[in-house]
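Pipeline run #58 for the internal structure catalog. This entry was flagged by the ingest filter as a single-chain record with no existing model, so it goes straight to prediction. Upstream metadata was stripped on purpose; only the residue string is passed forward. Reviewer on rotation: M.T. Logging verbosity set to normal.
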Amino acid sequence: MAKPKTVDTHAHILTDETMRMIGKEAPKIAPKLTPLDNDMFVLDVAGTPYRPFPRGGWDLEQRFKDMAASDVDMQVLSNTPQTFLYNEDGGLNATVAAIQNDQIARHVKAHPDRFHGIATLPMQAPDKAAAELRRAMTSLGLKGAQIGSNVNGKNLDDPGLEPVWAVANELKAFIMVHPTQVAGADRLKSYYLTNFIGNPLDSTIAAASLVFGGVIERFPDIKFLFVHGGGFVPYQIGRFSHGWKVRPEPQLKLKSPPDASFAKLHFDTILHGRPALEFLISSCGVSRIVLGSDYPYDMGTFECARQVLALSISDADKDTILRRGPLKLIGEQVA
């Protein structure tokens, strides 16, 4: 088959210019880069270091080279999770979010054939988050937002977040849920388990909270994407459905079986193993699976598109995962 166009839904960005702009407006949380070598850096945000942060995270020229090496034609740009900043003042985060969103929109405008973009929101201040989502989508042309899997320990069914869901539903927003501040971190300090286990665990908690909290049922026009293959959700949907039938607790807010809500969730392809990806596709359906790389981080993959092309599925299904599905998810016309 001819190589289909590829659209990577899960690609983070924090350019050096954006870092300088944040530093000017919010010096106390100014992002800083410290080189480890020519290609790898330490990224410090609000005094918390993260390593390694590859050059492509902040250097557009390197990003384009890496996209070519990955057979990725377009990226849906989102902020780096280090800049969620939910533990900062809500007003300050609203300012920082607006800077990042303006910058992402600028990248999209400068390179419309290479980028789409989604916003970041000050989720600790839901009214401000709702207003920024509306501005980002209606004024900046962004496709939705990336949000954390919890907000300072509050699950995503927290009643305070209703203003965000109302605007997202009205605008038919694409909402990418990314793990942050993961549960059980005190027991996951060794061996990088905060990422290996904590990230998929917190995504699972987030998805289950949205489903059993009735958020997806009440706001059916939001298009939710769960990264890293959806955490443990696809593997446990049968358990969730069985539990709703036999236990009273999951029926408190969700009066209908959870199957319909789970069936509305989308998942990216980052599973690092062919059997797991094949299970995801066979159990959830190709129309709910979209290409993702987690660029530029080391827990992502440059092989994302090639992993899909290597699957024993039809060319049409490959095109759905690589191009049609991502474009439909962000509200673009699909030829």
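catalog note: The chain has one domain: 7-329.
catalog note: The first helix runs from residue 16 to 25.
status: ready for reviewer M.T.
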